[in-house]
Amino acid sequence: MQKLVFLSFLLSSLISVAQVKDKIAFGPYIQQMGTKDATICWSTLESAPTITDKDGNVKTIGEYKHHKIHLGNLEPNTEYQYDVLNDGSDEGKGTLTTYPDEIIPFNFAVTGDSRNRHDVHAKIVARIMETNPRFIINSGDLVANGRSISDWEAFFGVNKELMRNTPYYPVLGNHEKDSPYYYDLFDLPNNEKYYYFTVGDALFIVLDSEGKQISEPDFISEKNSDDFWKNAFSEYFNTQKKWLENVLELNKEAGFVFIFQHKPLYSAMKNRKAEAEQTRKFWGDIFERHKVQVFLNGHDHHYHRATKNGVHYITSAGAGAPLYDIELTLPETQKSSKIEHFVNVQINKKNAFLYVTDINGNEIETVEIKRRK
Ligand SMILES: [Fe+2]
Questions:
Q1: Ligand 1 centroid vs 262 CA: distance in angstroms?
Q2: Phi-psi category of 262—alpha, beta or left, where left has phi over 0 and alpha has psi -120 to 50?
């Protein structure tokens, strides 16, 4: 087949005027926050390659250089001003606040499926900023196509002011497509696919429900197709399960345990109910056995909370992707709402409150969680 697509690399002098006026393309933003450590990231536009299709349509694709500095020997629970440009402008400035090394109240934000309605995403981000969270977690599908750099340009544009001062933790969704951009842009603990961190005596574990990005080769016969998909991921997910068991055991004295992954364990959508049941079967009783209080996921674009044996299973995916109907009320369903929203979680010494708030600032529900010990 004739290949009519070609790439040409232009000098950075051809970069559009809008991009040139900013010295920083993405950021600055905060990653890898700890009690004494933090990482500050930012990206600069290096060149503007083009790709031309067979009809002669030319598309420019920004090529970025990713910068990071790692800070150590910081004081716990302390605010620092930083300036990655140090050129007299405000562009490279931000504030970071290290995590506390003692049990004190704090709040964080959860949102999900921001994808491609940028106006909705911007409104949710503005609401989140009003709550002044210590950090934010996005339950996956941050962008519509993780392999499109223009999607990440839009994402970082919407989050610019929030991420300048607030650590941002992503969860891998199916729309991230296991993209190299994801790993270039975020600086995360462990293997960056599944990881954990702690704040005070709260434990936050991010799981990967997506696995590797692979496609089924044409030579796989129909009768072997199911086996191909079952076996392609089994080692990866079994390794992750062992890792999770170990992390929960290591941190068994944590007062609060929150788990995040993109795909739900309880779905209020007819065509996803079976997959959710399969996912539950895979994880078995691990969350109940370790007294996890809250499991948060994205993927189904609405709010849904189910409870089973003391664990809240919350779908929070209302930050920009088109909303889905609530098609099912499960025996475990406690609350559901087809609305754009986010969750502000306030951790106190003896309990925590999940304030589920819609895009207009109205309360959807408030859920109290008790400390584990
Ligand atoms: Fe998804």
A1: 7
A2: alpha
